[in-house]
Amino acid sequence: MPGQRYIRLFTEPPKRNCNWEKVEKDVEDALRQNVQKVQQTMGARDGQGKRESIYLGDVEASLTPRNIRDGAHLSFLETPVGIAALVLKKYPLVGNRAFVDAPWQKCRDFLLRGVEVTMEDDRNFGEDDDGCEVLYGRAGFLYALLFLRNFVCQKDGGGDGGKLDEDIKSCRELLSDATLQKVVHSIIRRGRNGAKTYRFEFGTAKSPPLIWAWHTKRYLGGAHGAAGILQMLLSCPFSIISSYMPEIVQTIDWLVCVQDRVGNWSTRAPDLNQSTSGENDLVQWCHGAPAMLILLSTILRMSVTPGVTTGMTEKQQERFVVSLQRGCAHVYMRGLLRKGVGLCHGVAGSVYALLAASGILDEASHTSSNDAPDSTTPKPPQERFAPYFTQAAHLAHQATFAGSLTGKGEMKTPDHPWSLYEGMAGMCCAWQEILYRLKHRDRSFLCSGMPGYDDLGRLVH
Ligand SMILES: [Zn+2]
Question: CA-CA distance, 434 to 424, in Å (whole number)?
Fold first, then answer.
């Protein structure tokens, strides 16, 4: 029963000035209280064993290169690569030379070994299409490289030819176009191979040019599937992906074609020999519509970005917009998830999906909503908030009731209730994003800001 997975929205969306004031105050209060609680749990054991990842939010990484298994276990979110990237970002770049000798070099060597392992895997490449997803694999490694690239490449070590110069130079090589190109090509190559197998298995031309598997299953969502992998490819500098754009756009078009009749996506690529619609009642970032909304918003934004030629046709663009609108309606109505408030399969993931769409769809609807006829009283400025941002803010506000919903048994407590991807830390990020946009409404946003996934536009600019 789809109704079992989400809680019906129990307040009206904010419209009037006083509604928006209440949303802002409630979100601010919830953020203040819960950030404190998240901070209190940092480093604490919760009976679940070690948590060496960004996903579950504890920092006790095993940064020895021998701990790298293969190219399929190198992600930012779920492996020590993420911790290494955070350490590399933070220390030498603020000129702390004392730090250079120990942890920083260890982290750099860890990532260098990651690149080597990816290349070794490719040399032994067979008929493989596995290990490219975001949560553990190559697309997650690509995110780590992109995350670091803009911090490291802008720094210098003083120019005196000293040790810091040398170390930063070695980092630049790690994060060079050439390295990114290798990882991107590895992902594309496996996607082409996966598509070949898919076509072979189902004997039809109605298949995408790129598709990947994870543990032999062809997932479509953000965590393990095509949406997440394509998102990371599109996050690369355009010169690196330009030659692959026809395949990327066609694959997105295929994803749009397999959207189900209610506006969601199935967890896996459909069996083309079956006539079933493959409908899915999971509407969460890891499986279902939210990651697709972020992907569609990204490609649509790229299509109006100067210097970027996506090759998307007018018809495709229209299809993508309609698909995005249908997906948004579904995510808004089913976004208050019973699984909790985290990014992966909780409310925060729904909020970021609507924020991504807001950057595209609200742009178009902004003028008409402002020009709508109204009463004789002057329109308060808060009514200028456009519909998709309003939906995102409404969901974020509903999440401020998470404590009472959990107390009543309507919302479940995740295994790691304070973590970034399962728990409250992710919701705190989403609340902060909502508050930021309430205060900076005239800014255009280059990404949704979802940490570890769709925040590179924020980091770059
Ligand atoms: Zn999940």
Answer: 15
Amino acid at 171: C
214, 198 contact by CB (below 8 A)? no
Q: Which of 48-52, 322-326, 380-384 has the highest mean pLDDT?
A: 322-326
Sequence-separated contacts (24+) of 66-72 with Cβ below 8 Å: 68/110, 68/113, 68/114, 68/117, 70/117, 70/121, 70/131, 71/117, 71/118, 71/120, 71/121, 71/122, 71/131, 71/137, 71/138, 71/141, 71/186, 72/121, 72/130, 72/131, 72/132, 72/136, 72/137, 72/138
- The answer to pTM > 0.85 is yes
- Integer-rounded Cα Rg, in Å, for the chain is 22
Q: What is the DSSP letter of 161?
A: S
Q: What is the pLDDT of residue 71?
A: 83
Residue 88 CA to ligand 1 centre (angstroms): 28
Q: Is the pLDDT of residue 175 over 70?
A: yes
pLDDT digits (tens, 9 = 90+) for 288-316: 999 999 999 999 999 999 989 999 999 99
Our CA dihedral for 46, 51, 56, 58, rounded to 10 degrees, sits at 90
Q: Is 447 annotated as a binding residue?
A: no
| 404 CA to centre of ligand 1 in angstroms | 22
By the 10 Å C-beta count (0-12 exposed, 13-18 middle, 19+ buried), 28 is classed as: middle
Residue 359 per-residue DSSP state: I
- Reply yes or no on whether the pLDDT at 3 is more than 70: no
CA 165 to ligand 1 center in whole angstroms: 41
The rounded Å distance from CA 422 to ligand 1 centre is 7
pLDDT value at 276 more than 60: no
The whole-angstrom separation of Cα 450 and Cα 329 is 20
Q: At what angle do helices 387-398 and 347-357 cross, to 10 degrees?
A: 170
- Rounded to the nearest angstrom, the distance between the alpha carbon of 71 and the centre of ligand 1 is 22
Residues, CB within 5 angstroms of ligand 1 (ion)? 286, 344-345
* Mean pLDDT, residues 260-274: 85
Most confidently modeled of 104-113, 320-329, 377-386? 320-329
* Centre of ligand 1 from the C-alpha of residue 285, in Å: 7
Q: What is the pLDDT, as a whole number, of residue 374?
A: 47
Q: Is 344 labelled as part of a ligand binding site? A: yes
Distance 233 CA to ligand 1 centre (A): 21
Average pLDDT over residues 5-26: 94
Distance 339 CA to ligand 1 centre (A): 9
pLDDT of residue 58: 46
